[in-house]
Amino acid sequence: MEAFRDLAERLEARFAATGTDPWDRATFEEWALLVFAHQYESCSPYRALCDARGVTPQNVARWEDTPLVPATGFKHFDFMGEGSGPPEATFRTSGTTRGIGTRGRHHVPSLSLYRAALLPPLEAALLPDPGEMRMVSLIPSPEEAPDSSLSVMVGFAAEARASRIDWLVDTDGRWMSESASVLSEVASADEPILLLGTALAFVHALEGAGGLERGLPALPEGSRVMETGGFKGARREVSREELYLRISEQTGLPTHRIVNEYGMTELLSQLWEPVLAEGASATGVHVPAPWLRVRALDPSTLAPLGEGQDGILAFYDLANLGSVSHVLTEDVGSVTEGRVRLRGRAPGSEPRGCSRAMDELMSASSR
Questions:
Q1: Number of domains within the chain
Q2: Phi/psi at 73 (5° precision)
């Protein structure tokens, strides 16, 4: 536990000192290999995979060569360092039609490290202005949903920068009794508002579901919206373009005041659209935190692809110190000069490379 705490504190200090300034390759490599060595020594399911691949801290020279863990592996294994103590939180993926037993779980031994990793990029993307801002959340509070990394993220943001926050939905997505009155009040507020929600929550709000017959209010000048994707369990989907146009029509904000966040339960760092700083030209471009690296890989072979080529996205997240940093997703996108363009989920069945990676993980663990 002492080794974990020491490394976590050093990472926190580095995140705070760096802010959103980019890290050069040598700096990231040094930290990534330190983190890999810790995870190899402390996380037995990951060590089994590494040993099966013949990769150890003694013979690996590049972070790209450390073994990938499929995001689906978090449904089957507890990736948690034996020496890091009990987790301070366990984040879980959304439920699926296959039942709660298939939900992925990410044990987090240090919420302080999670907070240190999320705040600088969040503030740069959503709150570049100094001072506090009133927040209105269509995402449940961390008290309502302590196993939601998104809820905890918004809670930390509110603690750091909110003059006031109103939580309008519960963990089941139901509107609070005061939601309609809060939204009516917001329409006449004399201060900018940060309105946060998932894509599905915005669809419900726009359509006046649950008694919100008026939909979203017009927002004061200087306001902005954070939207994070997610239609799991929804009866239907709408395109991003349609969703943003409808949010813009009801709130009166231009679409480039709507900031998209990309995150996942299996990662403790996020990617953000820099539209508030760079304008509409940055729409569809996501910037990772400096301590997060992204690659696009061939769906079949997992070989790295060139700049701008679409492939399966893989991440190396230093904030995942207490679990596994090198994570393979089923999301498709391209990477150009470190920035990511997302294309959505891989169509059809599980990509062959992801399936093989999962088979390898299961086999290594059984041995």
A1: 2
A2: -65, -25
